[in-house]
């Protein structure tokens, strides 16, 4: 009979491998972006090409743009158009699927979920502001059963990037995720409750915005142990007096342009650095 494995030795080996990975310069980045309108300016900025031999399963609408920028292998993944309705495949289900498939196919060192979101005026968010998310959670998975309630919220921390936020002077706050553009009273109550639950532990950072993808991307990234950061530009004021859909559509083009200015700055900062330097 073989002797039992030396658990302590295995732990030391795993820690050593993790340390080596952490000290290796970042090479491959995968962007998960919900909408074609958000993705195209970045595709143009980085001069990326659409993949003609898809790394994804046959029949899915997911689109990959890829190329080299400085020392980085960049991949922008857009879930594509819904086959039945012809609109962008927004929401948590497409986000989860493309994140999982992208990690399996491309083995990224870092995931960046970039896009637009609705912001809270009461938390200091203004139209056109670009935020880095410190934490992400769901606000529309209501499970009022002990422990299942925490699972429903699914609070996860983004990968810590103190040097990046300081260098680019980006606002930092919590990102809440749901599958609806508007917000019902129950969602609002849960966002407030989530903040009250976590703020003592999280340096009093408040939920600044809501979006379609963040917590879903975070769930898969955490599951597969890939660092993920979240960059969101504010298109509409959730707690304002204008209809959300109207304000979103009115500001989408201008805010997407602001996002397209910030994301290359983020990528320039990342280039040549290892994860621990972010």
TrEMBL record:
It holds the Pfam family PNP_UDP_1. It comes from the Eukaryota. Residues 28-263 form the Nucleoside phosphorylase domain. InterPro entries: MTAN, Nucleoside_phosphorylase_d, Nucleoside_phosphorylase_sf. PANTHER family: 5'-METHYLTHIOADENOSINE NUCLEOSIDASE, 5'-METHYLTHIOADENOSINE/S-ADENOSYLHOMOCYSTEINE NUCLEOSIDASE 1. This is Nucleoside phosphorylase domain-containing protein. It comes from Ilex paraguariensis (yerba mate).
């Amino acid at each position: 009979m073989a002797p039992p494995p030396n658990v302590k030795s295995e732990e030391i080996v795993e820690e050593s491998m993790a340390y080596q990975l952490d000290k290796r310069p970042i090479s491959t980045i995968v962007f998960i972006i919900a909408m074609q309108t958000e993705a195209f300016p970045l595709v143009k900025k980085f001069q990326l090409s659409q993949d003609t031999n898809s790394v994804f399963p046959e029949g899915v609408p997911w689109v990959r743009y890829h190329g080299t920028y400085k020392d980085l292998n960049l991949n922008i993944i857009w879930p594509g158009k819904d086959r039945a309705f012809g609109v962008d495949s927004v929401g948590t289900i497409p986000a989860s699927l493309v994140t999982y498939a992208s990690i399996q196919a491309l083995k990224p060192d870092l995931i960046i979920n970039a896009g637009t979101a609705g912001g809270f005026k009461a938390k200091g968010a203004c139209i056109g502001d670009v935020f880095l998310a410190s934490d992400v959670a769901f606000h529309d998975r209501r499970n009022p059963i002990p422990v299942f309630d925490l699972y429903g919220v699914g609070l996860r921390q983004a990968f810590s990037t103190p040097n990046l936020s300081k260098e680019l002077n980006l606002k930092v706050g919590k990102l809440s995720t749901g599958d609806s553009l508007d917000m019902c009273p129950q969602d609002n109550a849960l966002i407030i409750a989530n903040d009250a639950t976590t703020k003592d532990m999280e340096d009093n950072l408040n939920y600044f915005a809501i979006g379609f993808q963040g917590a879903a991307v975070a769930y898969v990234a955490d599951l597969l142990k890939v660092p993920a950061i979240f960059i969101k530009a504010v298109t509409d004021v959730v707690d304002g007096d204008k209809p959300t859909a109207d304000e979103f559509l009115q500001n989408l083009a201008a805010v997407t342009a602001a996002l397209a200015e910030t994301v290359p700055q983020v990528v320039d900062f990342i280039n040549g650095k290892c994860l621990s330097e972010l």
